[in-house]
Amino acid sequence: MSITVNLPSVLAAHAGGVRSLQASGRTLGDAVADVAARYPALGPRLRDKDGNPYPFVVFYVNDEDVRFRGGFAAPVRDGDEVTVIPAIAGG
Amino acid sequence: MTSTTTPISSPASLSARPLRCRNCGAEHAAAPVSICEQCLGPLDPRYEPGRRLPDRKAIAARAPSLWRYREWLPFDGDPVLSLDTGFTPLVEAPALARRLGVARAWVKNDTVSHPSLSFKDRVVAVAVNAAAAFGLDTIGCASTGNLANAVAAHAARAGLKAWIFIPENLEMPKVIATTVYAPRMVRVRGTYDDVNRLCAQLADRFGWGIVNVNLRGYYGEGSKTVAYEIMEQLGWRLPTAVVAPMAGGSLVTKLRKGFGEFQDAGLVHGVLPRLYGAQPSGCAPIVRLVERGGTRIEPEVPDTICRSLAIGNPADGPFAARALLESGGWAAAVSDAELVQAIRFLAEDSGVFAETAGGVTAAAALALARAGRLRPDDEVVLCITGHGLKTVEAVGGALPQAPLIGPRLQEVAALVQPV
Lengths: 91, 419
What we know:
Oligomer: heterodimer
Strand content of chain A: 15-25%
Largest sheet of chain A: 5 strands, mixed
Order of helices and strands of chain B: EEEEHEEHEHEHEHEHEHHEHEHHEHHEHH
Radius of gyration of chain A: 12 Å
CATH class of chain A: Alpha Beta
Number of strands of chain A: 5
Number of helices of chain B: 15
Shape of chain A: globular
Largest sheet of chain B: 6 strands, mixed
């Protein structure tokens, strides 16, 4: 199973400058854990010490905010694209 | 990073302040960056604690713009662009005070903000100077309309290029009042939150100065000037309560910061005002966080005619909820019907014609008064942030049609007769 994880440049700096990673897992949480295991500097920036997402880091699966799909429990499938975006203000 | 931005020379007299993470406290050099590289928290400008601050007399002698408070804005040196924005009227409205059952009421009237008729002129005036300080020649934004108007106008007068991204269903007056300045404007299929996410990726990719993304730390400071002006215009004192609209949630946090900064500087004395936030019930994630308690926003899919507050995923939401509660205030959500009614009574009571967000603010003030949260001895300021001509279709259908007559005296006389 291969899921693409797109990182903002501020996080790519902690993954050897790579902005797009491949990950595996049945849920978003699995995929994040897989990335965290392979890039130890990235892990604590993607989730807190309890394994939960930070309030100011938003994950999208195929353009959909995962908070509408169960957060880290959201299922992911082969070919899905996960995008990590620091939360930003509006206007 | 691919960049299409051609740096222009930075004005020698202007530099942006360095930054600090609001979440983890990590310090960052001044840069068009709004995200902490350590924890991804938001960055705020750092000010020199021992800097020389003006007194009331020195401030009062300065030109009537938001730059009269420049020591509390995130630059060293003199601003170079948008020097005439700010210092909008504070309008006392006795009829509104009677309606709310409070001692006195004022409208902070940013419907006449220069140049684009909303309080977004304040934040963009600051952001465009940040762009100048960083030598950027392109600014941009994700917008629900007012910010698009402001970015397009300020960019045009500064000679900067502008890329503006809006949801596809914005009110036509807001689209026209952007397009007329000839920016590159793009309509995006989806909600504002979709547009905002796209712009986060664009700022990362193209290196533009997207005012509410990578210039956000500087941009947001412009909102504090609403609080500064209220205090000065009240005769250097504090109101007891302030009601303000909430979209991304930044404004109420900056009001709290602004009132506190003038108290810290000894420019005003007394108790800081209770802050109340207003949202339409069709998109009220911050109100619901206040009511529910906790620290996490539950995002919503907006369903309201108040498109300027239709942000279902407000990044400053937790900070906004905390600011309201720490001030002793609260939040209220109102229906679309209530906001339309409130646009009318606000106009009748104060002479100020507000857009839908102003209707939300006025309706929320009335709801808070009826719930006993505004008190008979309160001195209340309503922050009315955008002009009613931007959203005329919201209220047009609710207004009576004028009688049509021939140009004859007796036809007018018939109308004048008591019924």
